[in-house]
Amino acid sequence: MDLGFGNANQRVGSAAASVLLKVAQVQELTVDDQLDQFDDLLNDEEALSRFRANRLQELQQKHSQEKQWRAAGHGSYEELAASRQDSRDVAQEFFRVTKESDRVIVHFYRPSTALSDVFHKHLQKIAHNHLESRFVRINVEDCDNEDGKGASFLVEKLGIIVMPTLVLIHKRKAVHHVRGFDELGGTPDFPMSALVRLLVAHNVLHREEEEYDNEDEHNECSWNSKRVGGVNTIRIQRG
């Protein structure tokens, strides 16, 4: 068939069409092969039984893993040693949590800093949807006990210099600090999906479908800059 582009272009067009045809044929063969394997599986009771047994084992293992995670506090966003009246040493609680779980996200915050509420809202929801990671928060204002142990020790050892800060821990190592919102667009109006991608990038969260991208997060999490003083972080004053 002459397409009106001359002999040279005609040959190129024919070659391209031939390549596309071969690609389509390969794809058809792949689909046919998969369908044949499925038909063979349906016709082979022994193979079908093995498939069902393997699938059941996978589901049982998944259920067992999720049960272990929930027993260790996964699925929630927990406060560690909430006040001076709490008999627990927040530093000891921190090390216990990081020993029990491979992936831990720790939010160091001050209740008096409204910016911390942004992380509270996002982390609460992410923790519920991602059982593979442990989410906790530490109040640095009022959780040192009478012996002087607690949040101030962790702040010093982990190099916490601004509020709020997320410390990302993978296999008992602090792999990254998220200080304020600088990595999230520099604004408290950042979408939850941006935080999810940041956590995935540092291997403290498993990669999932972009389950938050379809949400109208900008409107849901909008903040009045006057309320937070028009700043992104509050620097810790050391004595």
TrEMBL record:
Gene3D superfamilies per record: Glutaredoxin
Database matches in InterPro entries: PedC-like, Thioredoxin-like_sf
Highest taxon above the source species: Eukaryota
PANTHER family: THIOREDOXIN DOMAIN-CONTAINING PROTEIN 9
Protein name, entry field: Thioredoxin domain-containing protein
